[in-house]
Amino acid sequence: MIVGIAGEIGCLPFSLYGTASAERDAAEARLEAAKLELQIEQNKSENHPITSISAIATFRIKGDFSPPPLPYPDLGEMSGAGITFLQGTNLSGAIPSISLGADAANISILNLIPNNEHPDTHDVVISFHDGSDAVSGHFFNKWMWQNHAGFFDHVKGLVISMRQIGSNVTVLSGNVVVTANDLKWEFPIPAQKQRLGTISCKIIKNAKGQEEAEIMPVDLMDFTSRPLGHFDGK
């Protein structure tokens, strides 16, 4: 009986060693799996720094296209357009954003129906771009970390700034398609009045948990922080 007990005790260290070895192997396997998962995540296109980017905004408008006088003549003759994408639903310096520009030549207004049935309805197409500055300038956020393409997965709002198209223009519908690296995102443009040269959108969730596009109210200022007015799309 005593010999049997001694034999069992003698086997105990080998049993413990085997358990420890198995646990170590399992831990190493988990570590390798975690490294592989991290590598796969890092290799995803949305996790790569933005090296090329463009956006095309297309929206249908209706109204009086006779250009009104600029409300603030001392700002000079505005040309071109700009678009700002926000990871929030209001225009704030605390919210990460990316901005693109368009030259006057990148803006076109096209007749939708070439007859007299709807002579006051047109399409506006704006091609926003950023040439060789895709890895510098505004592609860095306020912490100076380079933005990745996945920035657009979290965009909740956008603001288009351009010269007032006409004295009484309504945006009927539209969208913005962004291409960052080899990925695309599409954002809606809700119906609104274009006032103070502004068109906006914010993405919200309704009571059913579904995403909807609404107008984003914007308090506008010039580069000297002088108030230019409040845009509410009405």
Q: How would you describe what is shown here?
A:
There is one protein chain. The protein has 234 residues and is an alpha+beta fold. It has 2 domains: 1-43; 48-231, no CATH class. Helices cover 18% and strands 37% of the residues. It contains 1 helix and 13 strands; from the N terminus they run H-E-E-E-E-E-E-E-E-E-E-E-E-E. The chain has one helix at residues 2-43; strands at residues 53-64, 81-86, 97-102, 107-111, 121-129, 157-162, 168-180, 183-189, 192-193, 198-205, 211-214, 218-221, 227-231. The strands form 3 sheets. Strands 1, 4, 5, 7, 8 and 9 form a 6-stranded antiparallel sheet that branches. The protein has a 5-stranded antiparallel sheet with strand order 3-2-6-10-11, with no helix packed on it. Strand 12 and strand 13 form a beta hairpin. The chain is elongated and about 90 Å long. It starts with a helix and ends with a strand.
Distance between the termini: 96 Å
> How many domains?
2
Structural class: alpha+beta
The description of the largest β-sheet is: 6 strands, antiparallel
Looking at how many chains there are and whether they match, the oligomeric state comes to: single chain
| Amount of helix | 10-25%
The radius of gyration computed from the alpha-carbon positions, rounded to a whole number of angstroms, is 28 Å
Number of strands: 13
Low-confidence segments, given as residue ranges, are 1-7, 70-77, 132-139
Percent of residues in β-strands: 35-45%
Tally the helices: what do you get? 1
- Rounded mean pLDDT score: 76
